[in-house]
Amino acid sequence: MIIGLPQEVKNNEFRVGLTPGNVRALSKQGHSVLVQRGAGEQIGLSDESYRLAGASLINSAAEVFSKAQMIVKVKEPQPQECAMLREDQILFTYLHLAPDPQQTQALMNSGASCIAYETVTSCSGALPLLAPMSEVAGRMSIQAAATHLEKTHGGLGLLMAGVPGVAPAKVVILGAGVVGRNALQMAVGMGAQVCIFDRDIDRLRQIDALYGNRVRTYYADPLLVEIEVCEADVVIGAVLLPGAAAPKLVTRDMVKKMKSGAIVVDVAIDQGGCFETSRPTTHADPTFVVDGVLHYCVANMPGAVARTSTFALTNATYPYVEALANKGIKAALFHDCHLRNGLSIHQGRLTSEPVARAQNVEFVSADELMAA
Q1: Residue 285 and residue 47: Cα distance in Å, rounded?
Q2: Is residue 8 part of a domain?
Q3: pLDDT under 70 in the chain at which residues?
Q4: What's the pTM?
Q5: Which of 270, 295, 338, 346 is an active site residue?
Q6: C-alpha distances in angstroms, 127 versus 116, 269, 341?
Q7: CA-CA distance, 103 to 98, in Å (whole number)?
Q8: Are residues 149 and 288 in the same domain?
Q9: What pLDDT score was predicted for residue 366?
Q10: How many Cβ atoms from other residues are within 10 Å of residue 95's Cβ?
Q11: Is position 153 annotated as part of the catalytic site?
Q12: Which of 88, 281, 286, 342 has its CA 20 to 30 A from that of 304?
């Protein structure tokens, strides 16, 4: 198979979908890998390292898209990339379609088969290709919050850990999934006063057993969420409904009641965000203020630590890339129901039920397509 690796074009996005090590492994199995020049240069993955691994270096994204049978990326395709896709191609990347009907329609129009990293499942029902970036984003959320609590960045002028005689910052984490637990680890490590909400009592028990009285655990009762959010210095939005739009847990009225200078970090912004006041931002312009509350809503947070993120991501995605390359899409999806769960669009048809519900459009299940 001919596999294409274009350079990412999203604002301040330096991750790449394949490392030189991945390219070498694919090349040894007889596959051709086309790498756009400069794709990994910003994170120390030189064109020469890809060439020595067996890749062919290509000057433009257009040429990569025109020649490749499978495109491997990191972030959702931008409009100019959607326009370059064609009917006989596989696109394997993060998609986050639920809050983005324009991208959904563009991918359907392309006729390509689009597999979303974030909805590929494991035997346990976990999301193995989303988890690495959720770990990174969860840890980064506390770094971002600590920075933006500083007065010079628009915050209250608080030190996350406090000092002897001065209280630490109050951090509220909404969601105890991968993002929430990693944010919790960092917040506790920095000495913050932390509480975490979830609806999974078993997760809360695990957190209580691990952290004891260093962390307050709460069932996600809406009234209690409102009380804690309004008293917080930092609120981390870490709620995920796989493939679906994030629920709006913090309303505009709740934001109005928060402290002036408090900060919210909406890690769920890729799926539409869990604050009513959220809108996507970029690393170039990461924050905005609503009712005196600083909002950090960068849609590709792990892109800021692109080298770490690239290796964490490709460690997880490479086996699926290999399966698609070796078997082709039909056989790979037929024999792996977990990879099949990642299929979002196929030959102009939407195959993701959560996306269909979010956008109120029709879909056909991937299982039905495979049976046909």
Answers
A1: 30
A2: yes
A3: 372
A4: 0.90
A5: 270
A6: 11, 18, 10
A7: 10
A8: yes
A9: 87
A10: 28
A11: no
A12: 342
